């Protein structure tokens, strides 16, 4: 599969003029460009928006899910397992054998009969990914974490470093020869998986996995992950939520440009940059057009273009289909069911699945309204994408492209401060679109800002455009200290305990990393001190939980050092890709003194 395209050579006139601009006006790699606006959201159209259908294999595996649940019962039942199964034979013969199984009145099949059928006709979930020994892995990399002086912490860090070998996979040969027998997509390069039930590549997880790989000096493995994600853009027009056929209808927070940029900073590989740029531009268009794009008018600044999460799906998510159907059962008409299914899939696109942040009533998941929200963090990620593309284009010598995206980033920064910034609270707040909005431009109303406190309100700190503004930074720092998010063992995701996993008391590695890294890069000493304090708390809770359980965890309970998180629609997972990556990134940035205790 050819997924790299050559970057077009800019005109000589443009190159010379803008070379002088960047040389004189912008001394270091800077910023991005507005895109045309298309459909504007109307809530009445939510269920009638775009839909990307799933394969016949996925549809059949959803049927198998239902029968398996009825037959085996709910104990330790994971819906995702069944849509991750691979066929041993062709789909038609498998379906005929399935339909021939004897069934009771409730549709269940005798347990032993169903077990025999699954064993005869399917390979187990996860067998389509096989172990791959990463060629750039060495047990003790030269220059590994030079600031870590404590012997116990260094030993722990090396154990986490060794996890990259355990989590390294490539697609099996059978996927190449029989792609229709698998829901796993045929990626061209080896990869690092998050772990446990997450047996495939995931989009935004990959950024923090790459940050850990860079600390481990595994540059080729990191590049391979990017090549895999670019192959999705070439095939589907966007990076998928994950590398499965049932994820083709949604993406995840767009951090591909950050991966490319961080790898470039470590390697200086300009060929890698030039090969990646066309895909980054295509992804930028994806997030700034169609149903993802929304226009808000605010006087006196005029119209502002922003982005939102919007999945191209209005049915139950295949990996959670029975849960989605149960939640939608309270609705009578098809419109309300389809609306909820799109909101569920759109929340999954956000990466925050699920959170009170997307709910009109934080006690009721069926009130999800993800597509009615303009999220602070998504628009910050797109701003960073614009900055990254500008920087990378400049490094590659395409000064026209660099200037275009620099301009776009300046527009988006202004938009983010205009629509999201709340000076009274000292935070950037998500913006809710009016319920009765019609197709056209939304008029800004201060009442539509979500005044609840979420860690996402502080994600702009991650971007140089914001952490370098010392006046605004002082307000944000004061607000963060008073927010209730800073806890004994890390930064909470919200202050609302809804029972959903992206709410209090859970803390997640990506949230810690973005906020802490932004604080650490600030010119304000008090921000840098807070960054180190919160990094120490996060490292301690990861270390103690690891020593207690023998695992790195997907999420942690920030109320108590050493406790892992809970809540949500699946049991807590271990492994774990992004947690490993953030620990290594923090140890690389902050180190650990020889005489400093790491126990709680």
Short description:
Its EC number is 3.2.1.28. With about 600 residues, the protein is mostly helical.
Structural class: mainly alpha
Q: Tell me the number of strands.
A: 16
| Alpha-carbon Rg, integer | 24 Å
Envelope shape: globular
Strand order of the largest sheet: 3-4-5
Notes on the structure:
The chain has 600 residues and is mainly alpha-helical. It has a domain at 56-123. 46% of the residues lie in helices and 8% in strands. It is built from 20 helices and 16 strands. It has helices at 12-24, 56-72, 79-83, 91-99, 111-121, 151-166, 173-177, 203-215, 219-236, 256-267, 270-287, 321-328, 334-350, 376-396, 399-419, 464-467, 470-482, 509-521, 525-549, 577-590; strands spanning 86-87, 122-123, 129-131, 168-171, 191-192, 293-298, 302-307, 373-374, 421-422, 427-428, 431-432, 442-443, 486-487, 490-491, 506-508, 555-557. The strands form 7 sheets. The protein has a 3-stranded antiparallel beta sheet with strand order 3-4-5. The longest helix has 25 residues, at 525-549. The chain is globular, with a radius of gyration of 24 Å. The N and C termini lie far apart (50 Å).
């Amino acid at each position: 599969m050819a997924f790299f395209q050559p970057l077009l050579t800019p005109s000589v006139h443009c190159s010379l003029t803008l070379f002088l601009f960047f040389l004189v006006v912008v001394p270091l790699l800077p910023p991005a460009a507005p895109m045309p606006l298309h459909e504007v959201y109307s809530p009445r159209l939510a269920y009638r928006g775009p839909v990307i259908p799933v394969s016949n294999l996925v549809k059949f595996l959803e049927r198998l899910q239902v029968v398996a649940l009825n037959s085996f019962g709910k104990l330790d039942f994971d819906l995702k397992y069944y849509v991750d199964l691979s066929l041993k034979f062709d789909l038609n013969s498998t379906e005929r054998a399935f339909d021939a199984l004897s069934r009771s009145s409730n549709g269940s099949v005798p347990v032993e009969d169903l077990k025999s059928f699954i064993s005869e006709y399917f390979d187990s979930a996860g067998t389509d990914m096989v172990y791959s020994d990463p060629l750039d892995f060495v047990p003790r990399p030269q220059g590994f974490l030079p600031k870590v002086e404590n012997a116990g912490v260094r030993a722990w860090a090396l154990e986490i470093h060794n996890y990259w070998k355990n989590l390294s996979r490539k697609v099996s040969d059978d996927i190449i020869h029989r792609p229709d027998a698998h829901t796993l997509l045929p990626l061209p390069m080896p990869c690092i998986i998050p772990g446990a039930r997450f047996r495939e590549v995931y989009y935004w997880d990959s950024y923090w996995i790459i940050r850990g790989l860079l600390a481990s000096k595994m540059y080729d493995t990191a590049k391979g992950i990017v090549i895999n994600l670019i192959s999705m853009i070439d095939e589907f027009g966007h990076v998928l939520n994950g590398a499965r056929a049932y994820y083709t209808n949604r993406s995840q927070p767009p951090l591909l440009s950050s991966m490319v940029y961080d790898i470039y900073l470590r390697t200086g590989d300009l060929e890698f940059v030039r090969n990646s740029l066309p895909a980054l531009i295509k992804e930028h268009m994806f997030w700034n057009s169609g149903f993802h794009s929304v226009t808000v008018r605010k006087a006196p600044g005029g119209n502002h273009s922003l982005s939102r999460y919007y999945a191209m799906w209005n049915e139950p998510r295949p990996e959670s289909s029975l849960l989605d159907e149960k939640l939608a059962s309270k609705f009578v008409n098809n419109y309300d069911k389809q609306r909820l299914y799109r909101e569920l899939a759109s929340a999954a696109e956000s990466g925050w699945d699920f959170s009170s942040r997307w709910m009109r009533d934080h006690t009721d998941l069926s009130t999800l309204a993800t597509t009615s929200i303009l999220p602070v963090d998504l628009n910050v990620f797109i701003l960073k994408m614009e900055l990254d593309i500008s920087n990378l284009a400049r490094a590659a010598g395409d000064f026209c492209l660099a200037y275009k995206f620099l301009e776009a980033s300046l527009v988006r920064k202004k938009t983010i401060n205009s629509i999201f910034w709340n000076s009274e609270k000292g935070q950037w707040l998500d913006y809710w679109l009016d319920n009765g909005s019609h197709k056209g431009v939304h008029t800004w109303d201060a009442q539509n800002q979500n005044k609840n406190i979420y860690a996402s309100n502080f994600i702009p700190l991650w971007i140089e455009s914001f952490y370098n503004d010392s006046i605004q930074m002082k307000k944000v720092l004061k607000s963060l200290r008073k927010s209730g998010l800073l806890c004994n063992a890390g930064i909470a995701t919200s202050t609302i305990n809804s029972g959903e996993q992206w709410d209090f008391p859970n803390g997640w590695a990506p949230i810690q990393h973005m906020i802490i890294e932004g604080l650490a890069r600030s010119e304000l000493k008090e921000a840098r001190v807070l960054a180190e304090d919160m990094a120490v708390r996060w490292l301690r809770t990861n270390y103690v939980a690891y020593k207690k359980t023998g695992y790195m965890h997907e999420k942690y309970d920030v109320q108590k050092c050493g406790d892992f998180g809970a809540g949500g629609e699946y049991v807590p997972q271990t492994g774990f890709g992004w947690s490993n990556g953030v620990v290594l990134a923090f140890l690389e940035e902050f180190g650990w003194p020889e005489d400093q205790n790491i126990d709680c």
